[in-house]
Amino acid sequence: MKKLFLFDFDGVVVDSLELYEKSVNLCLKKIGKPVTKDRADFLSLFEENFYDAIRKRGIDVTEFTKMSASIAPTLNYDEVSPFYDLAPVLEKLKNNNVLVVISSNSNYAINLILSKYNFDRYFWDILGYEFMFSKSEKIIHAMEALTIRNNRTYYIGDTAGDIKEAKKAKIKTVAVTWGWHSREKLESTEPDYIIDTPEELLEI
């Protein structure tokens, strides 16, 4: 029976930390709320749902997303590259399963980057922040749309927030160590799997 593999985008499919951090900080500066002081502070925003985290720091999420949409076309997406070792794994997984991107990033950026590297052919759909902010709700939506039960659904993420949100949706959680958060941080969330290489996804 086919499985549903839900992939976080930044830090899992693509190496985008530098650009994502730059874009978030630019948005915050433009709306007059520069609430992060360094890389560690930025990464702490992903210990839970990103939008919940910035809301707790006094950010108007609607204002933030409007500013994000306005600066998105000005960013240099050549600074982002995919994790190429993931490509043959995605090719194999998509043959008998369904693959979806669930991200806090914008559909604009995700589509642009995926198509640039011909990664768009692997994914059935993309659910960015425009669809809804909660990853848990997006996970449930994907399962219902595809009529695939939670015991055959896996979320692949690289941050503590990813794993926590997937657990709320009562699905299998896969933490990857090639992304933004450390193995120690990921282990603290008790994911079902922790993997160091994309090939290990084929063993799940």
SSE diagram, text form:
Layout: E1 4-7, E2 14-15, H1 17-30, H2 39-44, H3 50-56, H4 61-71, E3 81-82, H5 87-96, E4 98-102, H6 107-116, E5 125-127, H7 135-146, E6 153-157, H8 160-168, E7 172-176, H9 183-187, E8 193-195
Helix pairs in contact: 1-4
Structure summary:
This protein is of the alpha/beta class and 204 residues long.
Offer a few descriptive terms.
204 residues, alpha/beta, Rossmann fold, 2 domains, 6-stranded parallel beta sheet, two-stranded antiparallel ribbon, 8 strands
Order of helices and strands: EEHHHHEHEHEHEHEHE
Number of beta strands: 8
Structural class, by secondary structure, is: alpha/beta
**Average pLDDT level:** 96
Low-pLDDT stretches are none
Radius of gyration: 16 Å
Question: How would you describe the shape?
Answer: globular
Helicity level, as a percent range? 40-55%
Instruction: Indicate how many domains the architecture comprises.
Output: 2
| Major beta sheet, strand line-up | 5-4-1-6-7-8
